[in-house]
């Protein structure tokens, strides 16, 4: 057997191993939409919900409740879009959307996310909400890095970027909204666009 045949066989075996242990159908478009939802949500919060200069938002105020509801809507829309577009991508690749790899991916993503969510709620309940944006970015970044071993692509780099700007955000109080837009909005759009272009090439 020629050397080229050996290399071809090794490459095919490597691809099979990747397909059996990693989820490969994450949709780039879902990343772009998640970023757009985040920016639109942040704009609504900035213009209609945030207090004016010199004022503060009480934790039991109507505006705070609307702000939390808005965050929930943004997260829900992002998840629904990701599920729909990723399912379509998986069907196109003749893959199963729900198998052992998907369950491992979700478990590894949700452990840091749920931990972070509970920690943020405890902080808010104790009226310590000054670092909420940075904590959201840091725990989301940790979740992406933790889940990246079950995906093909550069999800871990998006996670590293979220952790870094989350730490910078913690060091610069008062700019949380803008770092939130950068992390959940612009970084998602950039990452989703790169993924989408790679999908088109393949």
Number of strands: 0
Low-pLDDT residue spans: none
Shape: elongated
The chain-level mean pLDDT equals 86
The proportion of residues in beta strands is: under 5%
Q: Tell me the major beta sheet.
A: none
Ends distance: 29 Å
Radius of gyration using CA atoms only: 20 Å
- The ordered string of helix (H) and strand (E) elements is HHHHHHH
Task: Sum up the structure in keywords.
7 helices; single chain; 202 residues; elongated
Topology:
Layout: H1 3-21, H2 28-49, H3 62-92, H4 100-125, H5 132-147, H6 155-171, H7 176-201
Helix pairs in contact: 2-3, 2-7, 4-5, 5-6, 5-7, 6-7
Tell me about this structure:
- With 202 residues, the chain is mainly α.
- 78% of the residues lie in helices and 0% in strands.
- The chain has seven helices and no strands.
- The longest helix is centred in the middle third of the chain and has 31 residues, at 62-92.
- The model has no long low-confidence stretch (mean pLDDT 86).
Concise overview:
This protein has about 200 residues and is mainly α. The protein is built from seven helices and no strands. Helix 5 (about 130-145) runs parallel beside helix 7 (about 175-200).
């Amino acid at each position: 057997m020629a050397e080229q045949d050996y290399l071809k066989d090794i490459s095919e075996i490597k691809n099979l191993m990747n397909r059996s242990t990693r989820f490969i159908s994450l949709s780039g478009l879902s990343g772009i939409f998640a970023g757009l939802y985040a920016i639109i949500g942040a704009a609504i919060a900035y213009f209609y919900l945030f207090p004016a200069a010199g004022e503060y938002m009480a934790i039991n105020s109507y505006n705070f409740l609307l702000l939390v509801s808005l965050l929930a809507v943004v997260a829900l829309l992002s998840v629904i879009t990701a599920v729909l577009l990723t399912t379509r991508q998986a069907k196109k690749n003749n893959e199963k959307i729900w198998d052992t790899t998907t369950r491992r991916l979700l478990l590894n993503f949700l452990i840091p996310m749920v931990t972070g969510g509970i920690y943020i709620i405890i902080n808010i309940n104790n009226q310590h909400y000054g670092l909420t944006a940075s904590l959201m970015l840091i725990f989301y970044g940790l979740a992406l890095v933790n889940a990246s071993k079950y995906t093909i692509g550069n999800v871990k780099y998006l996670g590293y970027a979220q952790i870094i700007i989350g730490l910078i955000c913690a060091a610069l109080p008062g700019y949380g909204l803008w770092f939130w837009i950068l992390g959940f909005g612009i970084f998602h759009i950039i990452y989703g666009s790169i993924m989408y272009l790679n999908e088109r090439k393949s």
